[in-house]
Amino acid sequence: MYMKLADEHDKEFQQKYSTDLDTALLFAGLFSAVSSAFIIQIEPKLESDPPSIIVAVQSLLYISLFTTLLAALLAVLGKQWVMHYQVAGSRGTMEERGLERQRKLDGLRRWKFDAILQMFPLLLQLALLLFSSALLLYLWTIHRAIAAIVLALTVFGVCGYICFLVSAILSSDSPFQTPLAPIAAHIGSQILRIIDPVLDRIRRTVNPVLREIN
User: Fold this and answer.
1) DSSP 91
2) Residue 64 and residue 131: Cα distance in Å, rounded?
3) Are 63 and 20 in contact (CB under 8 A)?
4) Distance CA 149, CA 201 (A)
5) pTM of the model as a whole
């Protein structure tokens, strides 16, 4: 019974992370190709005393490309980590296999495996934001009307992402979960834990004064 449940859990585990990592690798490959094309397009403008805005654009593009490649590397490593977990408990008696699997499962939880893998999509999202910023700056030097359109679309996308993020933070039932939501929720809870005593002291100080005034 235990091994049946363990096999079902492992199957779901592999399907979840393998799909996420494959998607990250595919996106990273396509996005790095786009970033490289823009870098090649702008590279000649750096040869002779380029304007500072062109230097800024190229810097953002290079950082975006590096971030994408880093995410791809980590995704490849992530697939290896998942495979390493999958081979746990593949040999030995049923008891030995169960103990080995449980040991590795405890290791995943202790080393925050899920949180680490959730960082890979964040790197890709950061790369996309950097690329959008570089594109906006570059278009601003060419045609400001087009740059304004790109700016409006970028702001719309960022606002939509923030709305999804807020919904995921406020409700665990929200279907719009993002990798940043647990991190933002944790940071928010820590901030509230710090400022709650301060707010409580302020209320204790202000309330008597307000009662006297009334």
Assistant:
1) S
2) 6
3) no
4) 48
5) 0.75
**Cα–Cα distance, 12 to 10 (Å, whole number):** 5
Q: What is the rounded end-to-end Cα distance, in angstroms, of the chain?
A: 69
HSE, side-chain direction, 13 A CA sphere, residue 51: 9
Calpha distance 67→60 (Å, rounded): 10
192, 195, 203 from 206: Cα distances, Å: 20, 16, 5
Return the CA Rg of the chain. Answer: 24
**pLDDT, tens digit, for every residue of 35-78?**
998 888 888 877 777 888 888 999 999 999 999 999 999 888 88
Q: CA dist 186 to 78, 124, 170, 177, Å?
A: 24, 21, 12, 15
HSE (side-chain half, CA atoms, 13 Å) at 153: 11
Place of tokens 């933002």: 184
> Coil, helix or strand for 163?
helix
Q: Round to whole Å and give the CA distance between 64 and 59.
A: 8
What gap in Å lies between CA 67 and CA 76, rounded to an integer? Answer: 14
